Amino acid sequence: MKPYIYITRKLPEEAIAPIRQKYEVKMWDHDDVPVPKDILLAEIKQADALLTMVSDTIDEKVLNEANNLKIVANCAVGYDNIDLTAAAKNRVIICNTPDVLTDTTADLTFALLMAVSRRVVEAAEFIKKGQWKSWSPFLLAGQDIHHKTLGIVGMGKIGEAVAKRASGFEMNLLYHNRTRKPEIEQKLGTVYCSFEDLIKKADFVVCLAPLTDETQNMFNREVFQKMKHSAIFVNASRGPVVDEQALYEALVTGEIAGAGLDVFEKEPIDDGHPLLELSNVVALPHIGSASVETRTAMINLCIANIEAVLEGKLPLTMVKKNSKICTNSK
């Protein structure tokens, strides 16, 4: 009997065609609606492998239903949607998709920074609505990016890629990270500083920190009040690192100048979300890695990880926290 792979979103048939010959493969029928929990619970009972999205919650309840599950391949760098402790207990290997999306996500992060600072979305809507009646010196005037100070919170691979892009704008580069990165300091001229100093000094604060117990709601009202009034905040990491009510209040009261958001505390967001009402917010639907090339590469990496594990080999990108306590066999 062929190993059974369940995929929680509808993917392009050409992406999974190579594995259909060797494995039994089933996909959820929709690409824009998460698989319902009851269906996931039913499928995991027989699945040898799961290919999941970051919006799928793979918690202890789900993992305890697994009888044959050997691997969950998460199509994302982050894996806070998966209970690693429960996975280890059930001898399930967890994999993610690092590296392949680094540059694409960095591009989008810097695009958000530029869009907010130069009021690109406001200007595009202004002209589309027929509001451009005359020219004036300060019509939709934004802020310069070049020669300003960029503070990066979370200097992983994506943070380094954002710093590289900022160096082309001759920005002053500050960063805060759990561990200092001397090699990046030397290569890019970045300066390590405390979180407190970074938020006070930076003209642009970019959050690329992973979601952990320590980072949840790390950007709260007190933090926003310590930023420059002209500061622009960009979040391309995870929504829950930000207290959204505090961010809204900071933007409305002018404590900071603007925000660019690719992620939210609850996704997808509800209609009428307060942050969407603000002209100084550029909001995107979690598309940091959403280029055709990169999403294809992410899917291919998930499939490669699944094939490796089902063939009794080590996967290419096992989550480190999981790798210490999981083996290839369940």
Automatic annotation (TrEMBL):
<dbReference type="GO" id="GO:0051287">
    <property type="term" value="F:NAD binding"/>
</dbReference>
<comment type="similarity">
    <text>Belongs to the D-isomer specific 2-hydroxyacid dehydrogenase family.</text>
</comment>
<dbReference type="InterPro" id="IPR029752">
    <property type="entry name" value="D-isomer_DH_CS1"/>
</dbReference>
<dbReference type="InterPro" id="IPR006139">
    <property type="entry name" value="D-isomer_2_OHA_DH_cat_dom"/>
</dbReference>
<protein>
    <submittedName>
        <fullName>D-glycerate dehydrogenase</fullName>
        <ecNumber>1.1.1.-</ecNumber>
    </submittedName>
</protein>
<feature type="domain" description="D-isomer specific 2-hydroxyacid dehydrogenase catalytic">
    <location>
        <begin position="5"/>
        <end position="319"/>
    </location>
</feature>
<dbReference type="InterPro" id="IPR036291">
    <property type="entry name" value="NAD(P)-bd_dom_sf"/>
</dbReference>
<dbReference type="Pfam" id="PF02826">
    <property type="entry name" value="2-Hacid_dh_C"/>
</dbReference>
<dbReference type="InterPro" id="IPR050223">
    <property type="entry name" value="D-isomer_2-hydroxyacid_DH"/>
</dbReference>
<dbReference type="GO" id="GO:0005829">
    <property type="term" value="C:cytosol"/>
</dbReference>
<dbReference type="InterPro" id="IPR029753">
    <property type="entry name" value="D-isomer_DH_CS"/>
</dbReference>
<dbReference type="GO" id="GO:0016618">
    <property type="term" value="F:hydroxypyruvate reductase [NAD(P)H] activity"/>
</dbReference>
<dbReference type="GO" id="GO:0030267">
    <property type="term" value="F:glyoxylate reductase (NADPH) activity"/>
</dbReference>
<dbReference type="InterPro" id="IPR006140">
    <property type="entry name" value="D-isomer_DH_NAD-bd"/>
</dbReference>
<dbReference type="Pfam" id="PF00389">
    <property type="entry name" value="2-Hacid_dh"/>
</dbReference>
<keyword id="KW-0560">Oxidoreductase</keyword>
<feature type="domain" description="D-isomer specific 2-hydroxyacid dehydrogenase NAD-binding">
    <location>
        <begin position="110"/>
        <end position="288"/>
    </location>
</feature>
